[in-house]
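Incident log entry.

Two folding requests arrived from the same account within the same minute. Monitoring flagged them as a possible duplicate submission, but the sequences differ. Recording both here for audit purposes.

Request one:
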Amino acid sequence: MISRIRHPYLDHPGPIAFAHRGGAADGLENTVAQFHRAVEAGYRYIETDVHATADGKLVAFHDVTLDRVTDGAGRIADLPWNDVRHARVAGAEPVPLFEELLETFPDVRWNVDVKAEPALLPLLDLIRATGSWDRVCVGSFSEARVARAQRVAGPRLATSYGIRGVLGLRLKSWGLPAALRRSAVCAQVPEAQSGIPVVDRRFVGAAHARGLQVHVWTVNEPERMHRLLDLGVDGIMTDHIDTLRGVLQDRGTWA
């Protein structure tokens, strides 16, 4: 574990347990009901995703379209909020506004994957308006998007690496030259990509040497959780929130 905390968002004793989409295994991903369940289970960090509707409302939702998980249909970017708000996840729960989540769960810290460029500035405006600098870490597969977020918001904003940043850190771990954005505070990565390991002792060591935390997604099996924690990773994102809590309790690091 790293001793130096680069941003207040990361100020947490022990490994960070992230409820991925609130705990997607229950089938109510990215809903207020599922976030309540995660909080009641003791989670203080929740991963979610954001899109902007056609009229600029910021919603917590993973997919580009409503089709997979709701009884609605269509691209969120093409729909007004009044249409999106009537869709029901699993036919039961509404799609929440991210602003609603900040208000409803004042003690939660949010890891936010910005899924599309139109959502970026509304997210930064909301963080600024609510003073949520210490409660939100912004990530994206696009390194250009998170770099832009950092330029706009400055050092108050916690950001993770996108794909290009993670690749640079992987190269550094092998002793190869690579340019790295210094403003990131963490690397959020899969355990492996296309069968190629990403997280090993060299990768974790390279991150820690640069003051970066390593958060791994999406890990649902206890044996994998234990292996990653033994490597020294700083956080795990899971769909199975009871499983991760049990693993951390067994290790005496649930906090």
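Request two (distinct sequence, not a duplicate):
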Amino acid sequence: MLKREILWRQIADDVLEGRRTTFHQRALAAELGMSPGNVNLALEPLRAVGAASVVGKNLIVRDVRKILLLWAARRQPSRPLAAFTSMERARDLVRVLPPGLALTSFAGFVARYGDEPAPFSVARAYVRADDQATLVELRRRFSETSDMGTATLIVHEADSVMARNLPEIVGPAQLYVDLWMEADFFASDYLRALEGRLAL
């Protein structure tokens, strides 16, 4: 994932989870391990679309939905690290997954909110790239496949910031953008439900 996407995710998550709406640019750079110059470049598109404004050395978020839409439109999706098939339905698969995975997309929404706007056939999750134990356990429990069309679980590599403290379920910003990237026709049902939950 590009550095600007990591920055946009951090800002959006902080706003959506009620932590803050004002960000000091140097502190944000230090928090994410980025140079202040890279942070400034990543913030320019947010200012250009009116999602945020700069007052002194602070960034103030004006419209978090615009941040999510900008990120979704410019997303550089990662290629899957591995894919698996199972006799379990995708929703039920979540209960038998080993630790070390961060659920996202349809399965992440259901796990976070307990609601299933539409049945889904593929669960997605992130794993640390160096977590070979989790990948080995997945291969022990499920059948690995190269055919993404038959997979019931698709695993992606977590970016460096997410991997520092991998959650069981991704934050709301990552969840929104991952749902946006889904091609299934019912993804819009999940997006509408998430927008309702986040009051977007």
